[in-house]
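Why does residue order matter? Because the sequence determines the fold. Keep that principle in mind as you read this record.
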Amino acid sequence: QLQLVESGGGLVQPGGSLRLSCAASGFTLDYYAIGWLRQAPGKEREGVSCISSRGGSTKYADSVKGRFIISRDNAKNTVYLQLNSLKPEDTAVYYCAVYYYCSGPRLPNYWGQGTQVTVSS
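Structure:
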């Protein structure tokens, strides 16, 4: 079974930090670019960040650039998203997704349950 497991979300005050993890089960992440998306209540899902298969290339949405950092540890079959300087507008369910390339379409067979990030004082 091909599965992604997101974790690390929680409730944090504005300006705080969290580190999200995306672990793969049933397949190896090495060959794929991995992205993070988020969906806030009443809003469409949006891309946040993406990292190439070897980690040499990263992309960020303008709204998180300079605050979020994506990384990966292929030996642990895990991708991370470090969230810094969090704002209330970062509140959303965060999902990771699998791509052949960051500029390509999401592969539909890989999806996780997401992890909730809530930024509030």
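The beta strands are 3-7, 10-12, 18-25, 33-39, 46-51, 58-60, 68-73, 78-83, 92-99, 115-119.
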